Amino acid sequence: MSVDLLESDLGGVRYHDGGDVDPLLSPRPYLTATTASGVAATAVGPDDHRHHLGASVAIPDVDGTTFWGGRTFVRGEGARMLANHGRQVERSREFDQGRLTEELVWVAPDGTPLLDERRSIVARAGIDVLWSTVLTAVHGAVSIGSPHTNGRDGAFYGGIFWRASFLTGRVRCAGGEGVEAAHGSLSPWLAVDGPGVSLVATTSNHDMPWFVRADGYVGFGPGVAATGRRLLDAGEELHLDLRVAILDHPPVDPAAVARRLSA
Fold first, then answer.
1. Using CA atoms, how far apart are residues 15 and 42, in angstroms rounded to an integer?
2. Labelling 224: which of 67, 132, 176, 203 has CA 20 to 30 A away?
3. pLDDT reading at 10 higher than 70
4. What range does the domain containing 177 cover?
């Protein structure tokens, strides 16, 4: 099932419940979007990474359960397909044109609940997507990791992750141009340009460096577990957000677009 958060003659934002996602891809709700002129800004289930689902909250390791999908990186062994795929289960949803709020529970393969989530997504004409998530360790303390913390240097992806529709792109940030400048940075904004679409992103998670890839596929998001495992005590909350402007052309001043997103 899916709902239109924002719809124009050509462009828009659509939210999908993920109910038809293959169990090996860690089923979860996700968002798809196009520019105002109808160019896709997200990719879902591409051949290179079938577990990439548009924009979603995807974390590779929560107490050993993957909510990222596909293979798991195991220290000393590399990427392996394990029977550790979790699922995000919707408990409630409220929808009004342009705004969606949702409560979910993240469950391990055996059905054990690991995290509760409160999610809010706002789509504004322009097109802007404002995603905010609160993860709570209601069911007990949890440890959150990434391939980087499990031994694959630099692969600290995990959190709110945006998979773009194009395979290579131009990357800019406050520190300069190129993936080398952006990946691992704490830049207040990120701009990624592809054919017919430009994405400008910002976040209030200033302690989470940007994970950025722009060759082979294009994807980005603030990394939850970048320098070490992130521990949540019982009852502790983790606040995540990502704000993305979807544009038809590369902006001259991405910083100004980022400021608009934060307004």
1. 12
2. 176
3. no
4. 2-262
